[in-house]
């Protein structure tokens, strides 16, 4: 099945509030101390994220940093809409207003189900050169028929589709200053991303701040889910949804990519969404670490200039956004 023609998709765009990284550093450092025993937040030159342990397709997180949200859970729940297939290359180019820029696109979404003939999770991680050449380090995770194991697969350069929903951070992949966040030993109830997001929300209020990037679960385990094959019956409640999902404790090192935003700014946004992959065959939708006493995180993030909302569902709901 072909992806939807990008030229006919509805695009909405809003500018985001962009505090200086030095200011965000202080805000996040102060806020995270209520959730982690050890916190260090710095503004640093972005390391080469193509290298171990991050394995991104592009080096940096700078150059026209933009958040993109595709579709949404209403295209999955209560019934799946099989027509919702989005080409990340053409959508990213339209969001950046250029077909000639090199760019990096990383983030979380439903995987390209036609490629494996099954519903799956997508960990998107691809670089597109100015001449259109695609380098994909993307992965997908799907459940085995017995629902006991996860299969993590590399997505080839020729497959650039995201199904149903996605939250993607797009930039030109340039080096530059970024926010580095390091935390150890979780003492509060929030996951790593929620702790950052709610700290920013409490400080900036109605001013919408968005960020994207990558974090590493360096030590410990995390609760993650992988979707089952598409349900033949309607999923109408959170209980039915959770019965359909498959939850696992997955072990470090996990490399998670995605976005966060402090409020919906009238665009029906998903506030946070990160998916992880690994070098040891595990991956899925990140929820929270399950080993708070030993957990260790290291993340690199940049602040988005804009958010681009693509194909917003006309009829929406709040299920399936955790």
UniProtKB/TrEMBL annotation:
Primary location: nucleus
A GO-annotated cellular component: nucleus
Keyword check for Zinc: yes
Keywords: Hydrolase, Metal-binding, Nucleus, Zinc
Domain DUF1907: 27-310
Source taxon at top rank: Eukaryota
Entry's Gene Ontology molecular function annotations: hydrolase activity, acting on ester bonds; zinc ion binding
Compartments reported by the entry: Nucleus
Pfam families (alphabetical): DUF1907
Subunit description: Monomer.
Record-linked PANTHER family: ESTER HYDROLASE C11ORF54, PTD012 PROTEIN
Protein name as annotated: DUF1907 domain-containing protein
The encoding gene: 6040018
């Amino acid at each position: 099945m072909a992806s939807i023609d990008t030229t006919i998709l509805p695009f909405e765009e809003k500018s985001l509030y962009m505090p200086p990284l030095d200011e965000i550093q202080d805000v996040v450092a102060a806020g995270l101390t209520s959730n982690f025993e050890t916190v260090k937040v710095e503004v640093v030159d972005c390391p080469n994220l193509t290298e171990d342990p991050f394995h991104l397709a592009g080096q940096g997180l700078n150059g026209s940093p933009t958040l993109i949200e595709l579709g949404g859970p209403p295209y999955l729940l209560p019934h799946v809409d099989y027509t919702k297939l989005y080409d990340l290359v053409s959508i990213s180019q339209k969001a950046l207003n250029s077909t000639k820029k090199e760019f990096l696109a990383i983030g979380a979404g439903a995987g390209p189900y036609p490629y494996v003939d099954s519903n799956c999770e997508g960990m998107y991680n691809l670089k597109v050169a100015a001449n259109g050449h695609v380098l994909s380090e993307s992965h997908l995770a799907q459940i085995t028929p017995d629902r006991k194991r996860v299969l993590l697969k590399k997505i080839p350069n020729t497959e650039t589709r995201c199904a149903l929903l996605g939250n993607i951070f797009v930039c030109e992949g340039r080096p530059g200053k970024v926010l580095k966040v390091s935390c150890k030993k979780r003492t509060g109830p929030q996951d790593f991303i929620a702790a950052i997001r709610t700290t920013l929300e409490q400080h900036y209020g109605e001013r919408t701040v968005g960020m994207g990037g990558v974090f590493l679960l360096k030590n410990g385990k995390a609760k993650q889910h992988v979707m089952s094959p598409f349900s033949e019956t309607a999923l109408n409640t959170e209980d039915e949804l959770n019965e359909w999902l498959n939850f696992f404790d997955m072990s470090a090192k996990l490399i998670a990519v995605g976005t966060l935003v402090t409020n919906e700014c009238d665009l029906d946004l998903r506030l946070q969404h990160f998916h992880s992959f690994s070098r040891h065959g595990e991956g899925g939708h990140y929820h929270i670490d399950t080993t708070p006493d030993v957990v260790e995180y290291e993340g690199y993030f940049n602040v988005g200039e804009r958010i681009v909302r693509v194909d917003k569902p006309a009829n929406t709901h709040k299920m399936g956004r955790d």
